């Protein structure tokens, strides 16, 4: 089936008891056995739940892979995957990853003797210098948050394959509609379903996806063992959100482009970060690797922190809030909000200055969004 048809139908079927077209919320911790050693597919919700299974089958269909496991948050997805590694292992990770990811990677580096090399993966030729006999994986996040830098997934996964390393891709920013990492050589994909997949800012969730019998088993074992699984009601909400993923992403992208072009032409804006603009250094890669450019736009203001604060306080539609990917537009300040946990030194190294403002462009009328930014910038 096409991607769009799968967003509506994959993983879900009319309920066997009453024919409910929407997957019921099986809010039950345990399931009655028919006889000793005989149950109807589910025994205990940490190990499996019918509502969660519907979401997992939907996600696996959308990422075109063999296995998806729904977990409590995006960070739970990342923490689960990191349990694949052991003391002495080394991981190469993109240096401008999500702040929470950077914090977790640094923590395991300190606590568990797993060495993390944070490097820019934008120049694949520079990766090999960091690979040694202890290296196990490359952690890719593209586009990056908040600077919208891109990593050539196919080029990096090819290097990983040559050296027998796992390639792990955080695909949160674009959703499976706009980017399909497995088709570019990824072994594992993680999502914060909190963002575009759910899309309605009413749940936190995550997912780990894999595409080989061996990894599928390992990930399922880890989620059941660690207890990072998602709750039935949360799964139901994400499943509901996924049904409108395609029309939402189209609107997000149309609005983001209009906003990016407006900002690009505005005299008080020094720089706009949006892969859909021809001025973006990796615009060609974006066109090749992605189906679209997504709904996130960042920009650097021409001015100091006082001007930045003025803009952050002045928007009326764009709400001052962290997170992204919901239908409503948000504005935030990476240095003190989403990327505060990264630390000032790490932010400086990757170029997240104190005057960068990040927008999650929602699906309101674009004329209203532009007018709101215009008055805030004036
Ligand atoms: C939000 C986010 C996460 C973390 O997800 P939570 O659901 O907040 O735990 C991880 N990676 C990226 C790219 C994100 O945007």
Shape: globular
CATH class of the largest domain: Alpha Beta
Counting H and I runs of at least 4 residues, what is the number of helices? Answer: 13
CATH superfamily of the largest domain: Type I PLP-dependent aspartate aminotransferase-like (Major domain)
Widest sheet, order of strands = 1-7-6-5-4-2-3
Indicate the structural class: alpha/beta
Instruction: Bin the strand percentage.
Output: 15-25%
Q: State the total count of DSSP E strands.
A: 12
Hetero compounds: pyridoxal-5'-phosphate
In the CATH hierarchy, the third-tier topology of the largest domain is known as Aspartate Aminotransferase, domain 2
What quaternary form is this? single chain
Number of domains: 2
Helix content: 25-40%
Tell me the major beta sheet.
7 strands, mixed
Mean pLDDT: 96
Determine the N-to-C terminus distance: 48 Å
Give an overview in words.
- The protein is α/β, with parallel strands linked by helices and 378 residues long.
- It has two domains: 3-242, Aspartate Aminotransferase, domain 2, CATH 3.40.640.10; 245-377, Alpha-Beta Complex (Aspartate Aminotransferase, domain 1).
- It contains 13 helices and twelve strands.
- It has helices at residues 3-9, 50-62, 74-82, 99-112, 153-162, 175-178, 213-226, 232-242, 245-265, 283-289, 305-314, 344-350, 366-377; strands spanning 67-71, 90-94, 115-119, 135-141, 166-170, 188-192, 206-210, 269-273, 296-301, 319-320, 330-332, 356-360.
- A seven-stranded mixed sheet has the order 1-7-6-5-4-2-3, with helices on both faces. It has a five-stranded mixed sheet with strand order 8-9-12-11-10, with helices on one face.
- Helix 11 packs antiparallel against helix 13.
- The structure holds pyridoxal-5'-phosphate (PLP).
- The site of pyridoxal-5'-phosphate has 16 residues, from helix 3 and helix 4.
């Amino acid at each position: 089936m096409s991607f769009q048809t799968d967003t509506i139908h994959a993983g879900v079927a009319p309920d066997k008891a009453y024919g409910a077209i929407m997957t019921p919320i099986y809010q039950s911790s345990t399931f009655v056995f028919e006889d000793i050693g005989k149950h109807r597919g589910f025994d205990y919700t940490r190990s499996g739940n019918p509502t969660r299974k519907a979401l997992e089958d939907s996600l696996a269909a959308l990422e075109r892979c063999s296995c998806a496991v729904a977990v409590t948050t995006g960070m739970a997805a990342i923490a689960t995957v990191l349990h694949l590694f052991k003391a002495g292992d080394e991981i190469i990770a993109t240096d401008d990853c999500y702040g929470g990811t950077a914090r977790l990677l640094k923590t395991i580096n300190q606590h568990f003797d797993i060495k993390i090399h944070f490097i820019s993966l934008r120049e694949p030729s520079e990766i090999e210098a960091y690979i040694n006999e202890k290296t196990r994986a490359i952690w890719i996040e593209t586009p990056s948050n908040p600077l919208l830098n891109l990593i050539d997934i196919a080029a990096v996964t090819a290097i990983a394959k040559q050296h027998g390393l796992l390639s792990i891709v955080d695909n949160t920013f674009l959703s499976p509609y706009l980017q399909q990492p497995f088709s570019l050589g990824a072994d594992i994909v993680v999502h914060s379903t909190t963002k575009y997949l759910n899309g309605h800012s009413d749940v936190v969730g995550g997912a780990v996806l894999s595409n080989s019998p061996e990894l599928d088993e390992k990930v399922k074992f880890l989620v059941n063992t660690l207890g990072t699984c998602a709750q039935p009601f949360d799964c139901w909400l994400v499943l509901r959100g996924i049904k409108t993923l395609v029309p939402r992403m189209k609107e997000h992208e149309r609005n983001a482009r209009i906003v990016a072009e407006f900002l690009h032409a505005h005299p008080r804006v020094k720089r706009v970060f949006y892969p859909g603009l021809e001025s973006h250094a990796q615009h060609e890669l974006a066109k090749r690797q992605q189906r679209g450019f997504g709904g996130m736009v960042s920009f650097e203001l021409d001015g100091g922190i006082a001007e930045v604060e003025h803009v952050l306080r002045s928007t009326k539609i764009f709400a001052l809030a962290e997170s992204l990917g919901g239908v409503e537009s948000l504005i935030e300040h990476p240095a003190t909000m989403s990327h505060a946990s990264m630390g000032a030194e790490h932010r400086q190294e990757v170029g997240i200055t104190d005057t960068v403002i990040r927008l999650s462009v929602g699906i309101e009328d674009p004329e209203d969004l532009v007018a709101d930014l215009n008055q805030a910038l004036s």
